[in-house]
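User: I'm new to structure prediction. If I give you an amino acid sequence, what do you actually give back? Let's try with this one:
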Amino acid sequence: MPGFQTRRLARTALFFLGALVPAPIYGQTVDTATLFPLQQNADTDALFHMPLCGTFQLEEATIDQMQAAMENGTLTSVELVKCYQLRVYQTDDYINSLLQMNPDVLAIAAERDAERQAGNVRGPLHGIPFTVKENIASKDALETTAGSWALVGSIVPRDAHVIKKLREAGAVLFGKATLSEWADMRSNNYSEGYSARGGQCRSPYNFTVNPGGSSSGSAVGVAANAIAFSLGTETDGSVINPAMRNSIVGFKPTVGLTSRAGVIPESEHQDSVGSFGRTVKDAVYALDAIYGIDPRDNYTLAQEGKTPEGGYAQFLTTKDALKDAVFGIPWGSFWVYADPEQRRILKRVICQIVAAGATVVNNTEITDHETIVGPYWNWDLGSSRGYPNESEYTVVKVDFYNNIKTYLSELENTNIKSLEDIVQYNYDNDGSEGGNPWPLGNPAFYSGQDGFLASLETLGIKDETYYQALNFTQSKTRKGIDDALTFGGKRLSGLLVPPDVGQSYQVAAQAGYPVITLPVGVHSATGMGFGLAIMQTAYAEAELVKWGSAIEDLQLKSDTPYKRTLPKWHSYLTRNIPLLNIYEGSD
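Assistant: Good question. You get back a string of structure tokens that encode the predicted 3D arrangement of the chain. For your 587 residues, that looks like this:
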């Protein structure tokens, strides 16, 4: 039956689970004074000092380093879990990245340790703790509510396929991450990273501004070294955007490469489960564990014969591979919309890539970008031009009405069975769930539940306008990206794009195509991260792994400042709601 129903209970459970130990492990008590952020360290990466995990340096540790420590006896999975519990205890009142901790996590870790002792190591994720976005179902003591009070106590029929696969890989489910409620579907003007049940997630890079979403807690937890890796879901930017804003790696795969079965849905045509890591390899380890055919998601059947034998980690490489790379720059499609500071820094990174031997071709544009790419992210762009039959939102509104009804039909112990039920619940609980727009309701849901109401208005009817919009958005974006990837009759290694320009991942989302984002720098005005992303065609994840790891290796092996940096916890005592969406360029 579902367990701890609130963050406060989840955090209290830390004490009962023995979380404030290293004591029983290392024979010493925790110096609680070291857990408090000292004002003298404000606006530095030393504000939330991360203690050693015994003798192991857990801060910024890779999965390979954790595995090596467990293999040589320096560390166990139980100890690793307890150290992450301590980190959550230290940071979660501030960043609120974890919605619920798994009360079984220490028992699971002990089982993985016993297997290791018996000589059975399942793979690179054996004994490694992870979180998932709280819209991904698990058949255990954890809730699956999409951050809404409406689904508390509901019982799911089974693990989501991706969780089942991670369990089989030996990974340890640590808990569930906060998110934007209903993965941003409910409202069109809202505080990113907020849910009624989970509260406001905040980025450790800046507490006052949008942390990225809707997979906010997944990205924030990884960025703050509060978990090893995490899963998120994306319909349009919800993996790439929070990864980029929190200076970590985000990998959004081709729609249908990872099963959506057991995931609270938004749109069957665009939903994808992706991974977060502090390095490309860590994100790829997670991807390798979760991709594959699942009979419960018929979209996964299309990958037959299009995925590599042996997984994607085999394509990880070094900067030396860049001498064979030819990248395209869709300047007029996306780059013109990036702020000047970001463009300056990203151009320097591209110069480094060229100096390493790569060829970069400018102006490899998305076909018809003048029509399908707007001046800013707008998932109702078609309607704003007077053509709802060319709008992504036309498709998503109808899909959500139908897809959520299918998901809810399998739940037990709940009276919520349709979108109509959710909408009514929000009205009945206006103060917490914000059924009405502000100043009624909840300031975090400024426009109330206008997204739900727009979906409800469609009644899920797939009319001519729906099918025209589906055909337009898919065919135009797929042709646009595929054309841009072709130069001189040859396929390019990828398109380099600024993911802070949301139109870039939006075009990929409509196409159902994969994207990887790499951390590059932070905005001087806000301290929030931005990145460099690579776009590819369907099922070209191997290309993204190859070139993403090559660029990362170049970053890490040079003295460049343009790579992942630790957060500085700007405005760590501020608790504004809603969070700010502001221009972040310095000029």
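You can read the tokens as a compact description of the fold. Here is one thing that stands out. Residues 1-27 have pLDDT under 50 and may be disordered.
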